[in-house]
Structures
1.
Amino acid sequence: MSEGVIKKFMYVNRKPPYGTVYALESLEVVLIGAAFDQDVSLAFIGDGVYQLTAGQSTGGIGMKNFSPTYNALGDYDITKLYVEKESLEERGLAIDDLMEVVYEDEDEDYAEKPSIRLVSRAELADIMAEQDVLLNF
């Protein structure tokens, strides 16, 4: 990658938030990538949609709940979180079951805007085709 060229990186989250290291590792890599001025977006498909569900409680499994970290993504200019509509529906979930993740749009007097974008499987395929790099977790 040549210096000064910003590439589009999409991190594809396919795993549930707990039980494996994939979700937490993805989030850490996303934050590192954004620190290096990558154009970062995230996709949540399959069981990955559970990573964004509201009201996560991990006390019963003895793991730290890292879901509040998604609220910091806007501070790293990560404002594109694509959630596949069909994956939600297949799991009996709707957009209202997800946490609210927002960013402050500096071009509009720091108005809060939603980062989560609900897209169809076909739309997500088109968005993925526009990326320079896809990293699957």
Note: The first strand starts at residue 8 and ends at 13.
2.
Amino acid sequence: MYKNDVPKCMNKYLESFAAEFNKMMQKDGNEFRSVQCEQREIIYACRFSWTVYLVAFALGFIPGKNEAVYDVTFHFYAGVFLLVLAIIFIISCCNIEYKKIVKKKLFPKLLSVFSKDIKYCSKGGAISASIFDKSKLLKKEVHYVDTDDTKDAFGGEYNGVYFRACEAEVSWNNGKTGKQREESTLFKGLALYFVLEKNIDANVHIYSKSIFNKTPKGYEKVEFESEKFNNKYDVYAQSTDNTEGQIEARYLLNVAFLERLMSLQTAFRVRKMRCAVFGNNMIILLYTTKDLFEINHLFRDVRVLGQYKHLFSEFASVLSFIDVLNLASKTKL
């Protein structure tokens, strides 16, 4: 398959994934293919689509309010331009609907390759607002976590660890209405939540390196011997009367942890990441506006394994984070 394209910690998944994928496509490939054909037909054979095309083309011939001389050539090209936009719009709508249908059938089977206890859901897989608040990673109190049916989520239990992964938009508002209402987006991207067997007393924050990072109130910066790590991340531990917070941060951030954390960022192709460990909870926020867990386009063959490279890397990076770090270990800090 594409072993050179993923971190070594994910290599063990490749052969089983390829074998299971091929089995799945032998059994259900024609069904997925028929879904593609149905959505493609809407583009060129649906009455509604043709109505949209004709209306868009006709709009190009409407004269401008201050148009002194009607220019047929200009309006023809305007009509063609609007027609092309209408076709792109219909293709986009069909592609979104196609992906929704296939995801509901395909993703649960892909995830079952890793574990029968992992479930996929396109809605209702949100991490609660209270978890975001307890992490203290966001500047304001979370009032709403949006996970509509265009966003993906999966989770369950893997190697004895409960986890959730969901695309979400987290927001704050002042609770008022009308002109007095204020609201802001606190986070948009992928949120990963783990319940650990390990428990720490001092909260630890990890931020991707940035000139805009500031030491959170009640925290102190932790420096590590690894210059490479210090160049990539800023780490802050909750201040305590002794050095316990610093000790816990150094114990937690071992070499394996750092490697898997960087693998997550690589797999999801994001620059900004924030992580918090509090009690026996861990939450990782990967900031991105890109669509994650995306499958093939409407005009590409759903049965070709190679096009799932990024999708597989995204799934496997989350699971290898649990697997290789051995987060299920009952060793206390």
Note: Residues 1-6 have pLDDT under 50 and may be disordered.
